[in-house]
C-alpha cells in the first residue's frame, strides 16, 4: 500500500548555544503540510525558516516536539535510519545549486539514480525525463559554466525530483536569481507539487514569491504568525502567539 503523503509537526522548539549565549530559533511551532501544494515559509532574516525546514526534513533534531513524515515519527529514528529516510523520500534544492563543474546536466541528475543502484540505461532515461520536466531536455549536454543561473537551478530541481520524492524541500531556491528566473523557478516548484501530488515546501524571504505559492506560512521571532492561502487568497488564519 502506498503510504499517505503527510508531513506534520507539533510543538517544535529549537535553540542554539554559541559561546554560552542561547538563541531561541524556534518556539512551539505546529503545522501540517498538504500534498499537491507549494507551501512557502516566509519571514524576515533570522526568524527561524531554515531551522524549521531542517527539522521538518529530518536534517536536524528538535529540542522539543515531534515531526511525522509519511507516517513515520522521525524522532524515533536513529541517525542512520533518518539518513535512509531522507535518501528514499526527500528531495532538496538549495540556493547555491551545488552542481559538479565537470558534469553535464544529464550526468548531474543521473548520478542520483546511479548512487541508488539503478541500472545505467534506466538511470539515463530517468534523468532525461526529469530534465524534460524542468524544460531543459535540449540543454542536457551542457556543463554548469555553460548554463544560466535559472537553468542551473532547474538542473538542481531535476536532480531533486528524479527519484520522485514525496517530500521536496527548497531553501531560498531563488535568492541567486533575477526576478524573472525566480518567478519561473517558483512556478516550476508549484507545478511539481500539483503534478506529482508531492508536498513541496519552500523557504524564502523574497516577498515577490508570496503571490505564486498555494499557501503562505509567515514566521516571526521563531513562531508561526500567519497561515493563509496564497494564490486563491480565500482563507486567512491568524495564529495567536
Ligand atoms: N547552526 C547555528 N548555530 C547557531 N545559531 C544558529 C544556527 N543556525 C541558526 N542559528 C540562529 O537561529 C536563528 C534562526 O536562524 P534560521 O537560519 O533558522 O533563520 P532564517 O529565517 O532561515 O534566516 P535567513 O532568512 O537569514 O536565512 C538565527 O538567530 C540564527 O542566527
In a nutshell, what does this entry contain?
The chain is of the alpha/beta class and 241 residues long. The chain has a domain of 167 residues: Rossmann fold (3-Layer(aba) Sandwich), CATH 3.40.50.300.
Question: Could you list some keywords that capture this structure?
Answer:
7-stranded mixed beta sheet, 11 strands, binds adenosine-5'-triphosphate, Rossmann fold
Walk me through the structure.
This protein has 241 residues and is an alpha/beta fold. The chain has a domain at 7-98 and 164-238: 3-Layer(aba) Sandwich (Rossmann fold), CATH 3.40.50. The protein is built from six helices and eleven strands. The strands form two sheets. The chain has a seven-stranded mixed sheet, with helices on both faces. Strands 2-1-4-5 form a four-stranded antiparallel sheet, with helices on one face. A hairpin with a 2-residue loop joins strand 1 and strand 2 (21-33). Helix 3 (105-115) packs across helix 4 (120-133). The longest helix has 18 residues, at 179-196. The radius of gyration is 18 Å and the shape is globular. The N and C termini lie far apart (39 Å). The model is unreliable at 232-236 (pLDDT under 50). The protein binds adenosine-5'-triphosphate. The site of adenosine-5'-triphosphate has 13 residues, from strand 1, strand 2 and helix 1.
Give the end-to-end Cα distance, rounded to a whole number of Å: 39 Å
Percent of residues in beta strands: 25-35%
CATH domain topology of the domain at 7-98 and 164-238 = Rossmann fold
Order of helices and strands: EEEHEEHEHHHEHEEEE
Determine the oligomeric state from the structure.
single chain
Question: Which architecture of the domain at 7-98 and 164-238 does the CATH hierarchy give at level 2?
Answer: 3-Layer(aba) Sandwich
- Rg, rounded, reads 18 Å
Give the overall form. Answer: globular
Assign the structural class, choosing from mainly alpha, mainly beta, alpha/beta, alpha+beta, or little secondary structure: alpha/beta
On the 0-100 scale, what is the average pLDDT? 90
Which regions have little confidence, pLDDT < 50, spanning 5+ residues?
232-236
Number of E-state strands = 11
Quick one: biggest sheet? 7 strands, mixed
CATH homologous superfamily grouping of the domain at 7-98 and 164-238: P-loop containing nucleotide triphosphate hydrolases
Bound compounds, each kind once, are: adenosine-5'-triphosphate
What CATH first level of the domain at 7-98 and 164-238 would be assigned?
Alpha Beta
Helix residue percentage: 25-40%
What is the topology, as strand order, of the major beta sheet?
6-7-8-3-9-10-11
Continuous helix count: 6
Amino acid at each position: 500500500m502506498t503510504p499517505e503523503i503527510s508531513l506534520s509537526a507539533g510543538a517544535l522548539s529549537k535553540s542554539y548555544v554559541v559561546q554560552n549565549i542561547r538563541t531561541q530559533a524556534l518556539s512551539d511551532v505546529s503545522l501540517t503540510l498538504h500534498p499537491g501544494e507549494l507551501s512557502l515559509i516566509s519571514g524576515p532574516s533570522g526568524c527561524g525558516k531554515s531551522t524549521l525546514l531542517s527539522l521538518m526534513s529530518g536534517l536536524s533534531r528538535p529540542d522539543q516536539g515531534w515531526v511525522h513524515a509519511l507516517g513515520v515519527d522521525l524522532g524515533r529514528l536513529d541517525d542512520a535510519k533518518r539518513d535512509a529516510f531522507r535518501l528514499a523520500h526527500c528531495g532538496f534544492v538549495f540556493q547555491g545549486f551545488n552542481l559538479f563543474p565537470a558534469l553535464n546536466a544529464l550526468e548531474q541528475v543521473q548520478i542520483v539514480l546511479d548512487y541508488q543502484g539503478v541500472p545505467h540505461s534506466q538511470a539515463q532515461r530517468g534523468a532525461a525525463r526529469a530534465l524534460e520536466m524542468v524544460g531543459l531536455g535540449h540543454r542536457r549536454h551542457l556543463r554548469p559554466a555553460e548554463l544560466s543561473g535559472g537553468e542551473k537551478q532547474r538542473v538542481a530541481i531535476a536532480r531533486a525530483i528524479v527519484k520522485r520524492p514525496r517530500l521536496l524541500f527548497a531553501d531560498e531556491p531563488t535568492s541567486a536569481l533575477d526576478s524573472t528566473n525566480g518567478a519561473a523557478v517558483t512556478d516550476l516548484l508549484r507545478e511539481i507539487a500539483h503534478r506529482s501530488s508531492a508536498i513541496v515546501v519552500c523557504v524564502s524571504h523574497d516577498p515577490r514569491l508570496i503571490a505564486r505559492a498555494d499557501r503562505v506560512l509567515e514566521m516571526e521571532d521563531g513562531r508561526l504568525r500567519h497561515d493563509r492561502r496564497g494564490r486563491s487568497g480565500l482563507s486567512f488564519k491568524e495564529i495567536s502567539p
